Sequence to fold (128 residues):
Amino acid sequence: QVQLVESGGGLVQAGGSLRLSCAASGRTFSRYYMGWFRQAPGKEREFVAAIRWSDGSRYYTEPVKGRFTISRDNAKNTVHLQMNSLKPEDTAVYYCAVDTTPVYYSNYNPSSFDMDYWGKGTLVTVSS
Fold:
């Protein structure tokens, strides 16, 4: 089993920044993807960003490109999501997730069904 614990959510004004963190513990894998999904009220959970742990390749959904940056801390088994230029439409519960597939994807764009482990989520609220 893998345990994922998110932190860093909160309330911010439009145009502001937040940094989310997700610490992983438990079982380890040699090749996997670790990243973030979000779910706004009344909407489906959607992919935001991910990093392939083996080589650090990064993937983003189009609406956050240029504003969000995913990074990792190998020593701490932690992934971060730096969110800048936040917009009210970024308001959602953000979930950390792990996909244990060993497959290399040049264009990784998972659905929530692809993920094997989930954190409990952290709320991000962006006021206008």
About this structure: The chain has a mean pLDDT of 95. The two ends are 40 Å apart (CA to CA).
